[in-house]
Amino acid sequence: MDLKINFKRNVALLLCVMMLVTLLAGCGGSKGSDKSAGQDTIKLGFLGAKTGSVANYGLPGEKGMKMAIEELNAKGGVLGKQLEGIYEDNKGESSEIANIATKYITQDKVVAMVGDPCTGLTKVAADIAQKSKVVIISAGATGTGVVEIGDYVFRNTLLDKFAAPAVVDWMINTKGWKNIAVITSMNNGYSTALTPVFEEAIKAKGGKIVLQDSINDGETDFTAQVTKLKNAKADVLVFTGYYTEAALIMNEVQKKGLDIKLVGGDGLYGSDLAKLGQSAVENKVILYCGFSSDQPSPETAKFIAAYKQKYNEDPDMFSAQYYDAVMILAKAMEEAKSADPSVFKDKLAQLKDYPGVSGKTTIGADREPIKSPVCLLTIKDGKFALEDKIPVNL
Fold first, then answer.
1. pLDDT score at 373
2. What are the tens digits of pLDDT across the range 208-231?
3. Partner of 378 for a Cys bridge, out of 23, 199, 270, 387, CB 3.0 to 4.6 A?
4. Residue 36: predicted pLDDT
5. How far apart are CA 358 and CA 224, in angstroms?
6. What are 331-366's pLDDT values in tens digits?
């Protein structure tokens, strides 16, 4: 009978120990929002268009992201794990980016998403990322209402609210262009958001808006708009849309014999600008962005040389910013000693004076990126070339 009692006691004790071990294991794993836990690699999801109307932004971005991941992996990866990029094509469409962001999070178990370059598309993905507690860092979105979505949402690009006033000051005080025409693409969210930023800066800095006109993305006949532009006697045209329409507008400007330059934001930064506009855009279009391969810093020069060797082409703003975004994510994970988005997002928010290939980046108190200088690019011999560099005054 004593043997039976002891046996029962031993069994009961063993069951208690097993339950305690299970409970402790459960407590240790409750941190488990770490998407990389139990995985051999740390996964990052690419957000960008590889086909469609904004592929000029996504394709170089993909190359920059791949290059950054390869460089980090060659040095041992992050936290002892290799990085793995997953590269879907959102085609520049809201429905596609929503599906891809959901797939990345629920199936691929990414810890962060890099991109999209477009503000509207970024907002779609950012809403999904925030609700799922996965970090997203946009390598191009410059419009308003992005980081406000939540504390998992970041970007590392030069913002319109800083860049446009600096460009307007340059137009008026350096170039003497005080009479300014403004054309907006009304079915383009980037354009409708950028126009008020330019208009406010023009008025604040003593310029005069002599024409306000509009087009729609997808139109090809701009005869009416250019006729009005000619009659307005403007010193310069500010167009806040994308490169395709800018090229077609300048083709019509050339046809009408009008001598005027077009100034815009980084929405004009696409290789098709020169292809579609040819002589009409040569030394006639000026855009602002946060990157130039001319007069590079040591970090940028090293990046340009490596990029050319790998892809046999020059990098652009998007390849540089995607590259930097991956490097910034890796830095945050290493400093946090964790690939858990809920942990390393706090290190992202503390980023200060990061010497990236696309300029120096600090995340401010409002979690917005502060970058300087502004690079003004034009088209020379069919390629983007530096026109000027101007500081950002905060």
1. 84
2. 999 999 999 999 999 999 999 999
3. 387
4. 65
5. 39
6. 999 999 999 999 999 999 999 999 999 988 999 988
Would you give the DSSP letter of residue 75? T
Q: Burial code of 301-330, b = ≥16 C-beta within 10 A, e = fewer?
A: eebbebbeeeeeeebbbbbbbbbbbbbbbb
Q: How far apart are CA 381 and CA 363, in angstroms?
A: 37
61 touches 160 (CB < 8 A): no
Structure tokens at 15: 């069951």
Query: CA Rg, the chain, in Å?
Result: 25
- Provide the token pair at 201: 């800066």
- Count of alpha carbons within 13 angstroms of residue 224, beta-carbon side: 8
Name the residue with tokens 């929002």.
Answer: 33
In angstroms, how far is CA 323 from the centroid of its own chain?
Answer: 10
Average pLDDT score over residue span 106-129: 97
The angle at the Cα of 106, spanning 104 to 110, to the nearest 5 degrees, equals 45
The strands making up 179-185's β-sheet, listed across from edge to edge, are 208-215, 179-185, 236-239, 261-264, 285-289, 374-380, 383-390
User: For residue 176, what are its two tokens?
Assistant: 């003497």
DSSP-derived 3-state class of residue 390: strand
Q: Counting beta carbons within 10 angstroms of the beta carbon of residue 392, is it exposed (0 to 12), middle (13 to 18) or buried (19 or more)?
A: middle
**Which pLDDT belongs to residue 1?**
39
H-type alpha helices, the chain:
2-29, 55-74, 94-103, 119-132, 160-169, 189-204, 223-232, 243-255, 272-277, 298-311, 317-336, 341-349
Q: Which one, of 84, 91, 85, lies nearest residue 48 by Cα? A: 91
Determine the pLDDT at residue 39.
83
Structural domains for the chain? 41-158+296-363 (3.40.50.2300), 161-289+377-390 (3.40.50.2300)
CA-based max dimension of the chain: 112
